[in-house]
Design a protein that fits this description.
binds adenosine-5'-diphosphate; alpha/beta; binds magnesium ion; 11 strands; 3-stranded antiparallel β-sheet
Length: 262
Amino acid sequence: MSNRHSSREPVIRAAHATLGYEGTPVLHGLEFQVPAGSRVGILGPNGGGKTTLFRALTGEIAPLSGDLKVRATTATVAQTDRSRLDYPVSALDVAAMGALARLPWWKRPGRSERRQALESLTMVGLADLADATFGDLSGGQRQRVLIARALTADAELLLMDEPFTGLDATSEQRLEELIDRLAANGRTVMIATHEVEQAERWDLVLCLNGEQISFGDPASAISKPVLEATYGGHIVEIPGQPELGVLPAHHHHHGDAERPGR
Ligand SMILES: Nc1ncnc2c1ncn2[C@@H]1O[C@H](COP(=O)(O)OP(=O)(O)O)[C@@H](O)[C@H]1O
Ligand SMILES: [Mg+2]
């Protein structure tokens, strides 16, 4: 019975939280609560603070002030860029790496970890490709293998930082379906995205631009003034959608790889 009560507690609770680096704030006014099993879209321009929020949620950085509480095992699903694919590891190897954090330092993933990794690959629809070389997979498949790794780590809260970047329409749809399934199974998924229309399909939206612009269900948290405040000058009108009026122009990352401490 006490379990039922505690499962209604929010997975994340931000109260007056300010995040930043070496004492310099970059993200103000975080004030939101996320229940378990939610799909949360995070909208914001490049530099708006999306990745900084994820770093705070994993505990990599502490709030400069205020409170940010996370009541879940948490894993970040990294972006998969080609430059990091030098090692000839299999999809199963990558999925099994999720077990490393739970193993004592002298142990390598063994049979039970590999069995669990295969279950994770099955969950993301890639059991058939367990033996395939990770670097040979498509971008969408690699993204799902990294989600499998987070599942092997038993993550209850999955942080996906622009996971749709570079995916084709089919992979994008598969990933969206997987996010739906993860949430239906009680996992909480936060997804940084540039697609407003995508965020509208999820349960909650958090708009960031150096501060929290809005938070709530998409119908109340997304509006023309909110999008203008979120994207500033980087907005374009959408023909035929006057009620919403604006969508962000597509941003593409180039500078991130050069930035230290990512
Ligand atoms: N390691 C860091 N040290 C100092 N400032 C950083 C660091 N990482 C990001 N920033 C700054 O924090 C702000 C938010 O960046 P970031 O969280 O990466 O935004 P987003 O992920 O939305 O593009 C930016 O102004 C960025 O320059
Ligand atoms: Mg980022």
